[in-house]
Design a protein that fits this description.
disordered C terminus, four-stranded parallel sheet, alpha/beta, single chain, 16% strand, five-stranded mixed sheet, 507 residues
Length: 507
């Protein structure tokens, strides 16, 4: 059975009306996976622009692809993945590189040469349309702000207020929702008068059954947003324009300022009262949901690592990740002992270097070959850009298809040659690094590693870029050893001897 990851994206609330809401996309993708017999191991949903690659949930999906833990990625439609054709090329090539198939629910994402060309053209047109929509939207919002009105999108979502439609008298503004406003004042009272933390306020709201603006359980992020939003004092600024009277005050400025000071005090208290240290904090990732693991203390006082996907307090999401937690003592012991074992095995590390050593005199020849290949690739890029212009101008489809197949075949050959040449060049350059140098670095680590304190061990984990992947009782650990001038460094220009092992244990 193939393992699938589902990715859903929206950028505006209007998509809820258009039938492309996150829930609609998710349901359609899950039906598709069910029909295909896929096991859905990962689900990602977010509200972000499709014109950027910097999206939190997309980053997690790409991490899984690079780790090769999924076989197929299912999306609702191509423009849900990206609206930028250049980004589309990056993502699809990344999927191809790791053997991951991309499937769409509402359209056939043909992986043929013509299909890729069509996807590129559609993406180009989609990008232009998205830019036009964004420009029109921003122009309209600025005009409303200048006229003393706010946009419906921002007006409808703020807790404590109801949005008055433009069609009504004194419309385009917020009106205080008395019930919600009382809870806003209560939150600030708990913070300023009682000194409660954001977590404690969130849990107290849940105890009272207080729901968010959308009717969901209050999440920590929602509470944090309410406690830090100056609009509750009556000051509304949009695109650099202040809109007086658009948002009536629920709080006094003095109470809001006192709340910001208390939040800082709470943050200091939290950092001072950390009684437990977690060696692997920041180095653990969940194979099931892609989130990180964090340390926590259980009822008996013991330390454990748990996936952040289990904590609905942070997101208010109805579904939790059920990947198991681990005893911190056990997990840290297992990982560190494996690290010591690896660094203590001279034959394993040196063997990895010697297996790929080559004659360093080949560097000059290979440099020349690589330059020629890159020059040919630039020529192919230029010809394909011209081909795109032909397609956009209605050039005969059969001729475009034939020419595109030829160019893609040439590109495929050149890319393969480049990959092989780069590998040979890397090995040849590494050959100038003597085995004694690597031995010296490893020996230095091996001698000092047993006597390191907590901070010293943390530094070793950071220097080796160690990542611990957890899935049930399986522990996968990866990292790198980088050698330059007899020392471990973060640069990747010299020897990169892979540090990778798999241990099995019970948490």
């Amino acid at each position: 059975m193939k393992t699938a990851a589902v990715y859903c994206r929206v950028s505006t609330d209007a998509q809820e009306i258009e039938g492309t809401s996150l829930q609609t996309q998710l349901e359609a993708c899950l039906r598709h996976c069910h029909d295909k017999g896929y096991e859905v191991a990962y689900r990602f949903s977010e509200s972000c622009t499709g014109l950027s690659l910097e999206r939190p949930e997309l980053d997690k999906l790409r991490d899984l692809v690079r780790a090769e833990v999924v076989n197929v990625v299912v999306i609702y439609a191509y423009d849900r993945l990206t609206r930028d054709p250049a980004h589309g090329v990056i993502l699809t090539e990344e999927l191809d590189k790791h053997g991951v198939k991309l499937e769409g629910v509402t359209e056939d994402l043909d992986n043929s040469d013509l299909g890729k060309l069509i996807a590129y053209i559609k993406g180009y047109a989609s990008k232009l349309e998205a830019q036009k929509i964004r420009e029109r939207t921003m122009r309209g919002r600025r005009a409303r702000a200048a006229a003393g009105r706010i946009s419906a999108g921002s007006g409808m979502r703020m807790y404590g207020y109801d949005y008055v439609p433009v069609s009504q008298e004194n419309g385009g503004r917020r009106a205080i929702n008395d019930t919600e406003a009382r809870w806003v004042r209560q939150m600030y009272g708990w913070l300023v008068n009682d000194g409660l933390s954001t977590n404690a306020i969130t849990l107290r709201l849940r105890d009272f059954g207080v729901l968010s603006k959308t009717g969901k359980v209050m999440s920590r992020s929602s509470v944090q947003s309410i406690l830090t939003n100056p609009a509750y004092t009556g000051r509304m600024v949009y695109s650099g324009i202040e809109i007086p009277g658009a948002t009536p005050a629920i709080l006094s400025r003095e109470l809001f300022d006192a709340a910001q000071k208390q939040l800082k005090v709470n943050a200091v208290r939290s950092s001072r009262h950390v009684k437990h240290q977690y060696l692997l904090r920041g180095h653990i990732r969940c194979r099931r949901c892609g989130r990180t693991y964090d340390g926590s203390v259980v009822n008996n006082g013991g330390r454990r690592y748990r996936c952040l996907g289990r904590r609905t307090l942070w997101t208010g999401a109805p579904e939790r990740c059920h990947n198991k937690g681990w005893s911190a003592d056990l997990l840290e012991s297992l990982v560190w002992s494996e690290l010591e074992r690896y660094l203590g095995d001279r034959n394993l590390i040196i063997g990895q270097l010697e297996a790929y050593r080559n004659d360093a005199s080949q560097v000059g020849i290979l440099d020349g070959q690589l330059a020629d290949i890159e020059l040919h690739l630039k020529t192919v890029d230029r010809e394909q850009r011209q081909l795109l212009q032909w397609a956009l101008k209605g050039f005969p489809e059969d001729q475009v298809e034939t020419e595109n197949k030829r160019l893609n075949k040439a590109r495929e050959t050149l890319v393969a040659q480049k990959t092989e040449t780069e590998a040979q060049l890397r090995v040849s350059r590494e050959a100038v690094l003597s085995v004694p140098k690597l031995e010296a670095v490893v020996e230095h680590l091996r001698k000092g590693i047993a006597n390191l304190d907590f901070e010293g061990r943390r530094q070793v984990l950071d220097a080796l870029s160690v990542t611990v992947w957890l899935d049930g009782s399986s522990i996968g650990v990866t990292g790198t050893i980088d050698v330059e001038n007899d020392s471990i460094v973060h640069t990747l220009s010299w020897v990169r001897s892979p540090l990778s092992w798999l241990v099995e244990g019970q948490g």
